[in-house]
């Protein structure tokens, strides 16, 4: 439930590119927004079965990191990362397009 609550909260009507401190952190930790997208895509594709790909904040290192969690395992208790953005890779998110 927590993963989907974060997921739905992060979606917004107008969308747009990250800016300000978030964009600075993305550029520092991934080189560019495209670098972050590539890393997130790779980690989400690597999920075996159902799960989540995440962008999270490491409070100790004060850096952004990508991680994946199986099933509905929440990011922070599983990895210590504060969840910022999640990609739902459960089959219900895509299976109708590929059945």
UniProtKB/TrEMBL annotation:
One Gene Ontology term of the molecular function aspect: superoxide dismutase activity
Reactions accelerated catalytically: 2 superoxide + 2 H(+) = H2O2 + O2
Occurrences of domain Manganese/iron superoxide dismutase C-terminal (ranges): 18-99
Entry keyword Metal-binding: yes
One of the record's GO cellular component terms: mitochondrion
Gene3D superfamilies on file: Iron/manganese superoxide dismutase, C-terminal domain
EC number of this enzyme: 1.15.1.1
SUPFAM superfamilies: Fe,Mn superoxide dismutase (SOD), C-terminal domain (SSF54719)
Entry keyword set: Metal-binding, Oxidoreductase
InterPro entries assigned: Fe/Mn_Superoxide_Dismutase, Mn/Fe_SOD, Mn/Fe_SOD_BS, Mn/Fe_SOD_C, SOD_C_sf
Keyword Secreted in record: no
Protein family (similarity comment): Belongs to the iron/manganese superoxide dismutase family.
Name of the molecule in the record: superoxide dismutase
Organism this protein belongs to: Meloidogyne incognita (Southern root-knot nematode worm)
